[in-house]
């Protein structure tokens, strides 16, 4: 079982993560992780903090001479904006964890809540996800994402081939593959910034090159779609997850909701459609995994919402702290990290062992058998 924990507050000394359950013999290097961290910092609509930070991970345990040794991998990302003795805050932001966090722990202010609930923690997740992505790459699995809508402005065109999405998304300031949509989205972000408002949106994560059979239909807690959905919902501000046709499947008749099965000797079994989003019965089908997540607008508004002071109980405007107008492009990168973590876990479960060489043998043997069966 692969698992990780993060620790760290937004303005504490550092974020740290411990990733446990990795096999020995996996190449890991800081430059690779840092490339992913830079992707998370990027995006039109991000706030002042990203000008201050240049997130860099140090591998502080679990790797020797560029490869894992089977021990837990600990990662450290220092905070440049490390502040001591930040003032108390008593004006909770509607939609943030502020009020419920204070009630839960009996605090009479929210500094003790927001420091940990800040989306800054997701930098540690992206570092963990980078290591998992590296494992998946060893087996030809590619994980990428793009933004399909922000503030109600959606993409209208997309490349036919999945393979063409990453380069287009990476070249766009809002990670949209449709340049016309990019212009509309940027204008919407500018207008929201002008109003002191924030915008949410939807991002899509795709994984190519997955073998069939990852996950399980046998028990509820081993279903891969359930695990991916939980991982994505756990990202700050994510409120919904859908696979393939998504909620539209509920409005589509059965004759057009499923993926018909074909066979020819060269290709084996194949489907012409991928309405399932690459998962049938909680298990990968071998087609691309396609999952989308909906992110709500950030709850720190420069034009604040109405709230109540925690100490005086008087009506007051919510606190205004530095924040982003829109962080959907960054959320896509975090989504990739969470999906990579779940897929790496499912990979180890299926081909499981504690050494890369043994996992590779199990994987290759399985693929030979799948091809023979088809
Ligand atoms: C973030 C760091 C935070 C916020 C943002 C994301 O830094 P600071 O509070 O110092 O500006 O910019 O967090 C939120 C939007 C939030 O609501 O928590 C980051 O590193 O991604």
> Approximately how much beta-strand content do the residues carry?
15-25%
Within CATH, the superfamily carries the name: Chorismate synthase AroC
Question: What is the CATH fold-level name?
Answer: Chorismate synthase, AroC fold
Side by side, the strands of the main sheet go 8-7-9-15-10
Query: What general outline do the C-alpha atoms trace?
Result: globular
Radius of gyration: 22 Å
Number of strands: 17
Name the average pLDDT: 97
Largest sheet: 5 strands, antiparallel
**Protein structure class:** alpha+beta
Chain oligomer state: single chain
Low-confidence stretches: none
List keywords for this structure.
5-stranded antiparallel β-sheet, binds ligand EPS, 374 residues, alpha+beta, 10 helices, Chorismate synthase, AroC fold, 4-stranded antiparallel β-sheet
Describe the structure in your own words.
- The protein has one domain: Chorismate synthase AroC (Chorismate synthase, AroC fold).
- It is 33% helix and 21% strand.
- The chain contains 10 helices and 17 strands.
- β1 and β2 (14-20) form a beta hairpin.
- The chain starts with a strand and ends with a helix.
- Ligand EPS binds at residues 10, 47, 49, 81, 118-120, 122-123, 298, 300, 321-324, 327.
């Amino acid at each position: 079982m692969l698992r990780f924990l993060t620790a760290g507050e937004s303005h504490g000394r550092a974020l740290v993560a411990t990733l446990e359950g990795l096999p020995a013999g996996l190449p890991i290097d800081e430059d690779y992780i840092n490339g992913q961290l830079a992707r998370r910092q990027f995006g039109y609509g991000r706030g002042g903090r990203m000008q201050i930070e240049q997130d860099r991970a140090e591998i502080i345990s679990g790797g020797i001479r560029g490869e894992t040794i089977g021990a837990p991998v600990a990662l450290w990302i220092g905070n440049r904006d490390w502040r001591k003795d930040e003032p108390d805050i008593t004006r909770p932001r509607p939609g943030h964890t502020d009020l419920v966090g204070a009630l839960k722990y009996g605090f009479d202010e929210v500094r003790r809540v927001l420091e940990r609930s800040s989306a800054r923690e997701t930098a540690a997740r992206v570092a963990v996800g980078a290591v998992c992505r590296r494992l998946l790459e060893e087996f030809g699995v590619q994980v990428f994402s793009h933004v399909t809508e922000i503030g109600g402005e959606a993409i209208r065109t997309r490349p036919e081939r999945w393979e063409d999405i990453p380069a287009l998304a990476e070249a766009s300031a809002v990670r949209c593959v449709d340049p016309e949509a990019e212009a509309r989205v940027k204008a919407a972000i500018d207008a929201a910034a002008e109003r002191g408002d924030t915008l949410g949106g939807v991002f899509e994560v795709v994984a190519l090159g997955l073998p069939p059979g990852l996950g399980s239909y046998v028990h509820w807690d081993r279903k891969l779609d359930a695990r991916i959905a939980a991982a994505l919902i756990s990202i700050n501000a994510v409120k919904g997850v859908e696979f393939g046709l998504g909620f539209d499947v509920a409005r589509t008749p059965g004759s057009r909701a499923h993926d018909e099965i074909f066979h020819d000797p060269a290709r084996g079994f194949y489907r012409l459609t991928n309405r399932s989003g690459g998962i049938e019965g909680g298990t990968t089908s071998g087609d691309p995994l396609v999952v989308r997540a909906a992110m709500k607008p950030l709850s720190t508004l420069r034009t604040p919402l109405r709230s109540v002071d925690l100490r005086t109980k008087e009506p007051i405007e919510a606190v205004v702290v530095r924040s982003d107008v829109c962080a959907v492009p960054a959320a896509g990168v975090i989504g990739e990290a969470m999906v990579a973590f779940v897929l790496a876990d499912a990979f180890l479960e299926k081909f499981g062992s504690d050494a890369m060489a043994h996992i590779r043998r199990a994987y290759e043997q399985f693929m030979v058998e799948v091809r023979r069966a088809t």
